Structures
1.
Amino acid sequence: MAGRSYGQYCGVSTALELVGERWALLIVRDLLVGPRRYTDLKQGLPRIPTNILATRLKELQAGGVVRRVPLAHCGLVYELTAYGRELEPIVQALGRWGFRSMGDPEEGDVVTGDSLTMALRTAFRPEVAAVLPPTTYQMHVGPVVLRARVAGADLHVAQLTPAAPPVSGPVPGDAPDLEFAAGPGIRRVISGELTPSVAIGDVVRVISGDPTLLERFALTFHIDPEGTST
Amino acid sequence: MAGRSYGQYCGVSTALELVGERWALLIVRDLLVGPRRYTDLKQGLPRIPTNILATRLKELQAGGVVRRVPLAHCGLVYELTAYGRELEPIVQALGRWGFRSMGDPEEGDVVTGDSLTMALRTAFRPEVAAVLPPTTYQMHVGPVVLRARVAGADLHVAQLTPAAPPVSGPVPGDAPDLEFAAGPGIRRVISGELTPSVAIGDVVRVISGDPTLLERFALTFHIDPEGTST
DNA sequence: CCGGATCCGAATCGATACTG
DNA sequence: CAGTATCGATTCGGATCCGG
């Protein structure tokens, strides 16, 4: 194993030995949304080989980043330790930094519920949201359906995607103020390259609610492609 | 190349495709200190295979992170683009996060001038330094010699290590207020596990100047091992 | 010396299949 | 559901070599 070490006594190289291997930070990204079972992770990372996932989870446990928690009645989940959760600002900063290098999606690229949830949390501007009225957005991106409830400086994202609708009553929470389906171009709305009004009908299709609320959405969720916001 | 893609349309995976490969962020770390020539990078990353270094530099250029700059009279240097420099807070955050997992150095681990320079910049607390008198520290860690000049909220680190001493006059700048040699245990001073007075004679050997200035050093450069500071 | 390119064995990764 | 096992395709690591 000495061959895998960077051979430096340094915080950065130590960090990279813990979470710098291929796929590791994407596993962390998904676990930042919540505890996940092995199968959930595999589904959220469609291209990860199963043996790599198993190996990474063992390494992350050995590094004190992830914990394996047997569930009461069925199966088990992986969850981040407190130490692992401290990676959230780093993962978000990486997401912000990588944001402006995302071109258009490659053939076969997917958007997952967890990645979109983290993207929303990354783009969320609490100080802007705080001065806007509480709003619930429901968005469809490909097969993913998310509900983002913004109230004051707080954001709560729920994934409705693979959930079988409960027999009685609609989805949890109140009805969304705005429901829309977005293509990949939603990225340009988040970055401000595209104004919401232009986006409507092009990359955004409003399903229900007041279309002008898309403006509020763009104010609430924003990533400046120039690094001005750090 | 499609086999190397994470297959996700997401800022984090995009970032990891740019700087997530092995060694890439350590190259960035060294370039954050300043432009470096190929040979400098190779020396600062003693364990990197030369073909990997060449490959990474090409990939980082293709990603717009690094630029290749021919020098006027001799050779050329690599330097970060503006986009690459935006990785500084991320590299620092990784260094802070990894800091508390650094055990004692493994056999063969090295400390380089660039890694120590970044470590100092990472541990530097401008708001604390601002209320302390200007101070110049000169530290020896293994073969590395660094001079850190703290003035108000500003820090300037110079590497004296491999520099042939100029024929006339001493090293640049004024004489250090405190000069000391530190072992790996200096880490415990930075983290506050060890008080400066205890450290003296154990992990720190004062060469010249007032030994009580080590206290000021520990106040100026500090990384809280608990994630309280984020 | 600087800035790599080349070659080769060892380790890892990726894809698929299989099991308790 | 939660992984192992297997195996070819890549990549990594170490060393050497080469043109300026």
2.
Amino acid sequence: MTTSAPGASPSVRFTQIVEQARLLYEEQGPEGLTMRSLAARLGIRAPSLYNHVRGKDELEVLLIVEALRGMGESLHAALTSVPARSPRRTALTALAAAYRSWALAHPHLYRLATGGELAREQLPEGLEAWTAAPLVGVAGGEHRARAAWAFAHGMTILELDGRFPPSADLDAAWAEGVAALT
Amino acid sequence: MTTSAPGASPSVRFTQIVEQARLLYEEQGPEGLTMRSLAARLGIRAPSLYNHVRGKDELEVLLIVEALRGMGESLHAALTSVPARSPRRTALTALAAAYRSWALAHPHLYRLATGGELAREQLPEGLEAWTAAPLVGVAGGEHRARAAWAFAHGMTILELDGRFPPSADLDAAWAEGVAALT
DNA sequence: GTCTATAGTGGGATAGAC
DNA sequence: GTCTATCCCACTATAGAC
């Protein structure tokens, strides 16, 4: 997190670092992201990364931020695509589909952002709430919202971890849960 | 996994190793269990462990087995405690309470047994199904059972990870989900 | 800003003597 | 079976020259 002198042209930019870190993480998961591997991908040496980033911890927080933004955009878009005054079930179904498909498209980032403890104090103010807003707005009460979130997260993480039998009809299980929680 | 010669008296026994590994893991989590730390706890040196266990991987599988057994016992007991022919909701409520409290009592083992991919081929035949049996029997159909499992796992893991606000009334969220999924 | 060189840490696992 | 002595690996991070 160093600022460059005016006119300087660093061989790598901060945004490039975050971008490549995200790609590396999406492709290979937590094991795949090391200071060495990231540097190699950027065409520099590992120690040079420390001129731009405080350390690996900062990098991980940045990735969580990216993930929450991505998920949030997907959920907000899903809600927008539903006609106003649609029945609650319509909105919930759309949110569930968006939630699941974002996670399946970015499994490692999904795990990073939703598993383990969250370093809330290092996140941009309001980001977490903004990501959750679509579901909270639709679910019908805070208890219902938490139950629905738990259901969605449970379905998602169990699917990502290969916990359901290959033969399981997960569309049906999702539909069942959404219907019950409507 | 070596067999002792008749009459031999090893200074540590296989069951002791698993027992201490479990305690270490329960107390300190994944980071806390190393071949060195486990050996130290048993009063031997790390290399000696390899006379009893193939390696750390085998140890982890053994811990997963312990965890599935423990969870299963808790769930089967909860179901037994419910009077026969009780309404479905009574049984589901009892199962949910047992599920949650086992997990809260053994957070690290719960994570180990329910997170990440499961090395099914290394587990005792039928163990996984036996652990799941109480819920599967009560839920009312396979899709409903999967939805209920996802809900319970989601609630549990989000609580363990501190994802709910401290002010959240989780009993209410559990009750809401159980009611919806009944 | 980037480099080379290196410190420091921690881990799993093996060889061979007793 | 247990020990000591090592090897090997991988990683984060820093120091100092260019």
3.
Amino acid sequence: MVDDFVKRVREALARKETITIGARCNIRYSGRAESFLDKGDRLIIIKQDGSMFVHQPEGLNPVNYMKEGSSHSVRVENDEVKIYSTNIPKKEFMYTTIVKPHFFFSQKLNDTEKIVIAGNEKDMASMLYENPSLIEEGFKPFSLEEHTKYGFIDIFGTDKNNNVVLVECKRYTIDFKAVEQLQRYVKKIKKEKGIKNVRGILAAPSITPNAKDMLHDLKFEFKKVKPPKYLEEIDKTQKKVFEY
Amino acid sequence: MVDDFVKRVREALARKETITIGARCNIRYSGRAESFLDKGDRLIIIKQDGSMFVHQPEGLNPVNYMKEGSSHSVRVENDEVKIYSTNIPKKEFMYTTIVKPHFFFSQKLNDTEKIVIAGNEKDMASMLYENPSLIEEGFKPFSLEEHTKYGFIDIFGTDKNNNVVLVECKRYTIDFKAVEQLQRYVKKIKKEKGIKNVRGILAAPSITPNAKDMLHDLKFEFKKVKPPKYLEEIDKTQKKVFEY
DNA sequence: GGGGAGAGATGCCGC
DNA sequence: GCGGCATTTCTCCCC
């Protein structure tokens, strides 16, 4: 019984299939940290690229995992199945002791598709670049998401009085880290360009009280902007798919 | 065939079992962003708590997912199986169209164990608290990982000249964000306590060049410290488990 | 490979 | 719920 299970796992590993195992097991990990998880029923996944995941029956994240490129060997010791997983370059190790296998399935999966995502920070910056009046009347952007020597600046432009304007977009609530980020860029530009008047604008749907205080101290500005969510693909094929 | 598959999925959902499906499918998501993933072979997992994951055959992270508390309903449309997943409180929606199911398994999993992790930042702070000479001779810590009104400070203490010392630990390379974090704490303490001499020390295994410059400008100090990795549990039961 | 920044980040704790 | 911060964060891009 155990021998059959081991044989199937070994063959699936050799064929580089995607493996799913349900089993009662315990896990030891050593690498960037060390961890131990005592016996319980879990879902174990080993992917074709060598990555491995242990999922408890609840929770979003795997409780233990190994990254791409890990090697796995299976042995039987004292009627228990042990999976030894190693990732030598990353110096990570994981040992899974299977007390009782519940189910096993493996299959070669074919998938060359890549996910298309809309509504990230870049899309938000693009929207503001295309519609500069969302920042303010007279704003003229002239650079978008560029690795300048002043840093990675979301939108760079001038206002109606020809002041240099630097816009930092955030999809979520601005905290003081975002304000500090903007401060770094503004400081650098003032220094390297030798100009005094550089306006800093934070564009986001909301801002924390602490960040607002810091922003006022630094004479920066906050512009309330809702991030765009619009997947062209979806609109083309099927309108309002996601309404309910 | 399709009807049987649908029946099994529905029953497993009703019984709140952990579900694993191998299938050729496409995915649409709308929530914090919007995404589309065209047809390919994937692993689909639905957990007992309503969370759901779609894994491509390679890669560490799920390509799509729904969080805990999501509801899932299954329908047949044009010989395809559609899983409609909704999370109303979070305003998130995911539609999985299964073109061809490869396998299905479901089971109630029992697991009450919690993972024990050693070697995180808290352990590092504790180590330095217990062995203050690792920071410097004469260092006297008097508070550990405390949510003070000055912020969440790793270690708070005094040096041999009775200066206030503030230590921020990082398990990994210090970057300028960590320096800014320390700066916030030091500023706040100087202001609220009305004292001038507050030393700031960053304890970590390494530091980036930019962070080092910033640290020198701010007259802070860097102390090279290796984070501890030691799981008592492991040492008690089995010495040097992770040697190879 | 390191540095810097975003992520559908998540998870934890405290208020 | 929000705020602040760590995470075995991961991922991407650029140098």
